[in-house]
Model the fold of this input.
Amino acid sequence: MKILFTPTKIGALEVNNRFVRSATYDAGAEDSRVSDWQINLYRTLARGGVGLIISGIFHVTDLVAKIAPTQNLLTNDEFIPGLKRLAVAVHEHGSKLAVQLYHPGREAFRRLKPLGIKTPGPSAIEEGEDPYFEGSCREMTVEEIWTTVKGFGEAAARVQEAGCDAVQIHGAHAYLMAEFLSPRSNSRNDEWGGELNNRLKIHREIYKAVREKVGPDYPVMIKLGVADGFPGGLEFKEGLDSAVQLAELGYDSIEVSQGLRGTKWAQTEFRDKIVKREREAYFRDWARQVKERTTVPVMMVGGLRSLDLMEKVVESKEADFVSLCRPLIKEPNLVTSWRDGQPRRPTCISCNKCFENVLSGSRLRCMLKKSGLH
Done:
């Protein structure tokens, strides 16, 4: 267990242990701003001992609607003060804060469809055309792509100005960058589509835009979907090649996850019923191979529950960090309890009722038991 509580670095940033709170959408913003409720949530997580907290999604552009009214925006400077308060709350307890930046891409269709508006995506798709996507979208113009790239850079500058420690670019979970990378959702015939190098172009351009704004030493991380959750989408070979290219480009850390989602929990990053050891660490092999092929810190996420398994992952250099989401919703003090000599399994059973609750518009909380994140 000792290695899990040793410090390590992401670029110039030192993190005091190997535990990451993986980005988790909490539906807690008020008027698109950081709310007092969110500040209390993050303060509780920091008090609970997590070395690096990655925020829920912050939207970077006004070109397309948020996926929900209670989502955070970072589209102009008026959102900086709230983010400053969030950073202070996390730093009070010795944790570091990274802010996750994203564009929803075609996933915004649920809010736009009732308005008769088609959300932009890499390529046009009509409703019913793809069994793994229940909506429709139109093809983004090249001008819109460049505006989005610029939005990521400007949002990153605001994160840095607010005193946060890093940014994480969201390139997974069916959102815009995962859509560009997957040949399933990107059938463009210009420089943004086709072969892998073209489908990865938006990842490179966003990195360059962000790096130009934050300078050479500020940590710029990425959460990368290295394969889709169903046959006929992005295959791991291309995802692994993408991870290697992005690490060589300059991304300071890679959190290895899934790209497009299927229609069942088992085809998503939220695989359920992680109650037996053999169901744990379902992205382990992907993360291990990314770690073998790159020199940047790798974060392993996906159903990690047993402390001794996490220790083995770090000791054997399969990953540098272990990322937790659902266990910390129910038990935000879990890392502290482990540090204090209680190496028990989390009580979370991965029922996913917490996510269903958030998708219904309510704030993040464990639905089975009162937790510290109410």
